[in-house]
Target: Hydroxyacid dehydrogenase
Amino acid sequence: MTRPHDAAILELKNLLGPKGWSMERDVLETHNREARGKFEGHADIILFPASTDEVAKAVAICAAHAIAIVPQGGNTGRCGGAVAGQDQVLLNLKRMNRITEIDARDFTATVEAGAILKTIQDAAEEHDLLFPLSLGAEGSCQIGGNLATNAGGLNVIRYGNARDLVLGLEVVLPDGSIWNGLSKLRKDNSGYDLRDLFIGAEGTLGIITKATLKLFPHPKHIATAWVAVPSPEAALDLLALARRTTGDAIAAFELMCGFAHDMSVTHLPNLTRPLASQTDWHVLIELTSSRPTDDLQSLLTDLLGDAMEGELARDATLAQSDAQRKNLWAIREGIPEAQGFEGGSIKHDVSVPVSKVPDLLTRGMAAARDLIPGIRPCPFGHVGDGNIHFNFTQPLDMDKADYLAHWENLNRVIHDIVAGLGGSISAEHGIGQLKRDELAHYASAEKLKLLRAVKAAIDPDNRLNPGKVV
Ligand SMILES: Cc1cc2nc3c(=O)[nH]c(=O)nc-3n(C[C@H](O)[C@H](O)[C@H](O)COP(=O)(O)OP(=O)(O)OC[C@H]3O[C@@H](n4cnc5c(N)ncnc54)[C@H](O)[C@@H]3O)c2cc1C
Model:
């Protein structure tokens, strides 16, 4: 029997030509599976359009046949946002990967949505400019996915989230029409901010096809230090001191518990312990400056001297070479991978006001230990943004499956504490399918009503990425 789906597939194949689609098993297997393995898609066709026009026509075909479309970037998201259900069409932007302009006068880059984040960073650097969005998946995530999830990462404290780094967007709407908002304007108060609606919408309102991004002067100097701090409170005092004394040169400020640090240096190859001493809490601090005359090594040395004197730091080391700096970052960025060597882990990507981070950590760790005796808390993250990856590794003597069966119970315990502190259950990774019910649980009735009204207004037939976010 012919389904509407089959008729649409024929039209889509004709539209996009042989390079523009695949129904091959191994291609579909790769794109239907999210890396963490928590979500499995069922699409039997994936589209690879090469232009905005092709995206628009493909969306129009799907709309005419009442078929849902799931946009996909680098598929590095962790929330089940880019996986498609049965009879849905997966649309990956990877062939739309051009950087169409770097404008050194406007300090902008205009790019197609499928451009890999690292490629954009490199292209900016060739012009002695910086695109500051930086995250562990930057070698494979696409800028369209970064914008659709309002990605955060390592430099948010200085430059903001993906949302703060965009001037304009081009978006294909659920009926196949194209909204051209590809502006370079830094000021535009002419009505509702449509651009901001599509950023963070996780592909539920439109398919981002192009973006105009903000660029910055490329740093001329970088100074990086690893610091042993007595407590999360001390880390926050150190952050405040650093902000006051370095002229806001802080580009990154990461907190890690001792367990997270130990796992990284124990399980991952070729990493060197930064400090001989043991400590329960570590901070990675990085200063950058684009002023040729700045001496950041001295600035950071003075800061750490003051921190030691004020008992905000117990020990510290400054990276003296690029290799040493890379070692420090590899310890921090390797934590999620290293956690895998210690069994199952239950994860939370949450944020609270920066000053509430110590409260969150104390209460969260105590509540988790009450719920699951022997659990090993592994909090780390972008403390300067109040964003903690509040992960918990299984007890040593517990079966992995038995431990992971506690996922929802532990989520509820941690999310309740987060909500009580005025925080968010999703700091940077998004909602997708993973946290859709949690969003419905924690959002106010007014917020939910508005979210659903926006979705209904822009995508009344629920054709774009249904079942995600709201
Ligand atoms: C090792 C590692 C480290 C990470 N670190 C961070 C981090 O520090 N900060 C952070 O925020 N995230 C982080 N992530 C998560 C992930 O990389 C980001 O969410 C990233 O922005 C997703 O981009 P992507 O291209 O892979 O999107 P995908 O995973 O393909 O898609 C994510 C969502 O965006 C939608 N989407 C994708 N492209 C488009 C488009 N063109 N138009 C409309 N919707 C679209 C999809 O439908 C889906 O809902 C990390 C992931 C990994 C694997």
In short: The first strand starts at residue 21 and ends at 22.
